[in-house]
Amino acid sequence: MITAYYLTAFALSFVFLMILWHIGQKQIFPSLLMAFVCVFLNNGGHLAMSVSQNVEEALLANRLVYVSGSFLPFFLLLIVCQLLKVRVGAKKLLVMTAANLVMMVCAFSPGYADWYYKDITIDRTGGFTSLVKEYGPLHSMYHFFLLCYVIMMIVTVILAFSRKQKCSYKYAIVLLVSVVITFSSYALQRAIGLRIDITVYVYLMMEIVVLLIFRRIIMYDVSNMVSQNLEQSESSGYIIFNRKKQFMGCNMAAKRFFPELKSLLIDYTIPEENEFLFDNIALNLRDESRYVFYLKRGDRELRVSIYPAYRDNKTEWTGYIVEIIDDTDQREYIHLLGNYNEELSRSVKEQTAHIVKMQDKLILGMADMVEGRDSSTGGHIRRTSDVIGIFTDELRKNDSLELSDDFLDIVVKAAPMHDLGKITIDDDILKKPGKFTPEEFEIMKSHSAKGAEIVKKILDGAESDEFAEIAVNIAHYHHEKWNGMGYPEKLSGERIPVEARIMALADVFDALVSKRCYKEAMGYEQAFDIIEKSLGEHFDPVLGKEFIKCRPMLERYYNESLARE
């Protein structure tokens, strides 16, 4: 009956070991596996003890129990550290291993020395064998040994809490409680002197707890899930090389992309005879500045990336990972998108140019309509616009004026709108052939302010803010004078917007050299003489000197223009 008791525990420990292996697969912790092996050996030792026929057989079974019992706390401590993500240094591992070996040697000493057991006999009453032991001076070390491991587990949990480790405290504490219960049952059994060892089933209960914890851990272990999926991936290939750039393995997708991998040998560098892999992988591994590149294989385009590989602690460099991704669809999409964007950009530019052209024609049409009502200024709008073009070309040559090309382009474009305000003037005044009366002149002067309002309404939301501002300023202030005697605001000097000062020169010059119903055209010599004498009075002195430099181009333009008229 007792033998069946131990046989069942032994069989269950084997089943739990196989369950662990099944659910763990490649993600199993080495320390967890060794802990289950220790329980299996411990229960096997107790089973062997129960059927022993003499002291020698019983001692052999007892040694098996103590070997597993000496190392089980060590592996349980490592499991707790892994759950709490606490790193155990190499020196600490060495010290603990040495302590375990000392305890194992002590457990092997009975039969050879009396410092662990002074005397040993067997008791076969009740249908099973048990050892009757008289403990030696070193046996108490085993209890101290177990207590130290329990204390180290508790300290590990406390340290993890204090350092705020990002880990599962719940699982670690559940495991710690199971360990404490297990070792407490061992102490209770020794205290009351039970012949039957209850710890074999307490170990099994602890294994059930561990299996449940481990199953949940691997279900939600992101890094392991990702690595497993990547290994099975059909769309991403992975090749592993060590620090010496020797081939260490690859997944199936990598072999599908690069069939040449099938001929590579583990722990060997890529040979030059393997021409494709040598030229495209081996040489790029040597060139550590090149991490991402593209390869063409048939009609497919592959993106190859090279990354450094590290161990779990992310600090120990172990080699390289070469990632191969079929990027054909993405590259084709980018190419199509690029063509589409280029076509769209071209279409937008054409439509924008068409709209701007229509807008310019509309503005010129309005200006011509205004000029058609003013019988005294035929061709004035067209000529002043051309004069502004000649004048701004000269201004572009003088960097000290700090007038940008964009600004001057806008001035040229806005010039035809300078007299739009005349559309608000009655025909009786606008078409009067002679000189204006003082009252009529005051009405006539209102065209500049009214023109600014019209231009602002036309351009609001249709053009950039800069264009609208320049066009409004030209219409509003082109009759202002440098000395402050102009209209409508009597601005003076640089308070007059520079675009209006430019327009004033072109506007007055055309009025001087053109024939009107109330006067004859003035000669170029006289016109330029008047402008020169008006510098600092009517006109900006700096801009005026630049305008006078345009004389040869202006004379040629007016000779051709007036000849056509």
General description of the model:
The structure is a single chain. By secondary structure, the protein is an alpha+beta fold. It has helices at 2-24, 30-50, 55-83, 90-108, 139-162, 169-192, 199-219, 222-232, 252-257, 275-286, 328-373, 380-395, 405-414, 427-430, 438-445, 447-459, 465-477, 498-513, 524-533, 541-548, 551-564; strands at 117-123, 130-135, 236-242, 247-250, 292-297, 300-310, 317-326. The strands form 2 sheets. The protein has a 5-stranded antiparallel β-sheet with strand order 4-3-7-6-5, with helices on both faces. The protein has a two-stranded antiparallel ribbon with strand order 1-2. Strand 1 (117-123) and strand 2 (130-135) form a beta hairpin. The longest helix is centred in the middle third of the chain and has 46 residues, at 328-373. The protein is rod-shaped, with a radius of gyration of 50 Å.
How many beta-strand runs?
7
Question: Biggest sheet, strands in spatial order?
Answer: 4-3-7-6-5
* Beta strand %: 5-15%
Distance between the first and last residues' Cα: 132 Å
Instruction: Assign the CATH superfamily of the largest domain.
Output: Rhodopsin 7-helix transmembrane proteins
- CATH domain class name of the largest domain: Mainly Alpha
By helix and strand content, what is the structural category? alpha+beta
Summarize the structure.
This protein is α+β, with helices and mostly antiparallel strands and 565 residues long. It is built from 21 helices and 7 strands.
